Amino acid sequence: MPDRPLPGTIKPRRFVPRFHWELLACGVAGHELLGTDSRTLREQDEIFARDSGDIRWHRCLRCDSWLPLDKPANPTREHPPNRMDVRVPFRGRALRDRIVLRAIAIDRAFHFVVLAALAILILIFAAHQRELRQHWYPVLVDIQKTVGGGPVEEQKHGLVHQVDRLFSLDQSTIRLAALGIGLYAVLELVEAVGLWRQRRWAEYLTLIATALFLPWEIYELTHRISPFKIIALIVNSAVIVYLLFAKRLFGIRGGVAAEHAAREADAGWASLQRTAPRRRRANAPGPSAARGPR
Q: What is the DSSP letter of 288?
């Protein structure tokens, strides 16, 4: 194995340090350790656990941190499980993709809830349009007179004007609008489920759907600027850039083959073996508490 410093023991070469998704995951879910309940360690276990006197050093399988713990007073097994029986947690690009894609999935699920509720409200409105106009229109007229002043008939804008336009629509038009919003809500739900399960087709679907609505968001900003519209534009633009370049869609940066190769380089026991510190010599101190992956 080449002579290389332990992970986290050298300063980053870049001005902006690399963001370690592994540390974020371990900070939320805790470290992934092996051998904490084992009586003895084998030579093959030195990749993740090493004895040093009364202390046993354990390497987190996710973030590569080495943690000093007391040897188990009441071990439940003779030695750690074999590697083939242990599933190595997500690391590197695989972990980054899982966190980012699930964050996008949560955003799409929120969109689904809002749009589905809006479609239901529109259908309810269409079914009770006449009753709502009879009961609520006089109230809105009073509000408009009180706040805006002047007779309602002269108003060409404002709350009453918008409500009047809404009540003037026929039921078929309102139901058609509800259908369109409902279909869009279903699309958002499909995206959310697919992205949560990290399906490649969901990444393409999300990219295409987001890109199709991006010109409309820009058009809306040219008419009226609001913080919500600006944030939505930034988020959706970031989603498009991430899916195109980080996920290598449409063959960009080597396509799916390069994507799988990059994920495999950061996953499994091969990655742990490649980034493990050298085996210590006899009477040498245990590994230092290094933090940070690779």
A: P
C-alpha angle 198-203-204 in degrees, rounded to nearest 5 = 145
- In Å, how far are 31, 54, 182, 275 from 51, measured between CA atoms? 19, 8, 60, 19
Cβ contacts of 92 within 8 Å, gap of 6 or more: 21, 22, 263, 265, 266, 267, 271, 293, 294
If DSSP codes are grouped into helix, strand and coil, which group holds residue 70?
strand
171-176 contacts at long range (C-beta below 8 A, 24 or more positions apart):
171/126, 171/129, 174/122, 174/125, 174/126, 174/129, 175/122, 175/123, 175/126
Give the tens place of pLDDT for each residue, 3-21: 555 556 667 666 666 788 9
**Cα(51)–Cα(42) distance, rounded to whole angstroms?**
10
pTM of the model: 0.76
Dist CA 139 CA 145 (whole Å) = 10
- The pLDDT assigned to 164 comes to 61
Regions in the chain scoring below 70 on pLDDT: 1-10, 12-17, 132-168, 279-294
Please count the other Cβ atoms lying within 10 Å of the Cβ belonging to residue 135.
10
pLDDT in tens, 62-112: 999 999 999 998 999 999 999 899 999 999 899 999 999 999 999 999 999
> d(Cα 150, Cα 144) in Å, to the nearest integer?
8
Q: What DSSP string describes 230-285?
A: HHHHHHHHHHHHIIIIIS-GGGGGGHHHHHHHHHHHTSHHHHHHHHSPPPPPTTPP
* Order of strands across the sheet that contains 66-70: 49-52, 55-59, 66-70
What pLDDT score was predicted for residue 239?
95
Distance, in Å, from the CA atom of 167 to the CA atom of 179, rounded to the nearest integer, reads 18
Query: How far is Cα 278 from Cα 263, in angstroms, rounded to an integer?
Result: 24
